Structure to design on (104 residues):
């Protein structure tokens, strides 16, 4: 998957986790390494909670030498054991999102 965005009204309801779960499950079961990045600092704690580990942080200047705001990229890896454990502990929020997505 190249990118995923969730509408603000669906933030913190498990929508992204439900959309990512099938792909991540197949990858983990196949023994593949799953890597990803985010530029949103507020998402890092969510990824860590879902069973990812932070591999590194890189700061970029958008225009070298400018005083403008740069870009921070966080590199993450799914830890298979943690992801599988989290997938087994579905919360009420995830079930609600799954029902809603099924109606779409």
């Amino acid at each position: 998957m190249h990118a995923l965005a969730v509408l603000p009204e669906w933030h913190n309801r498990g929508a992204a986790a439900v959309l990512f779960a099938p792909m991540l499950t197949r990858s983990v079961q196949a023994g593949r390494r799953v890597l990803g990045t985010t530029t949103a600092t507020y998402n890092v704690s969510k990824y860590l909670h879902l069973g990812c580990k932070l591999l590194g942080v890189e700061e970029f200047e958008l225009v070298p030498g400018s005083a403008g705001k740069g870009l921070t990229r966080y590199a993450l890896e799914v830890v298979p054991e943690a992801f599988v454990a989290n997938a087994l502990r579905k919360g009420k929020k995830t079930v609600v999102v799954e029902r809603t997505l099924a109606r779409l």
Notes: DSSP finds four helices and three strands in the chain.
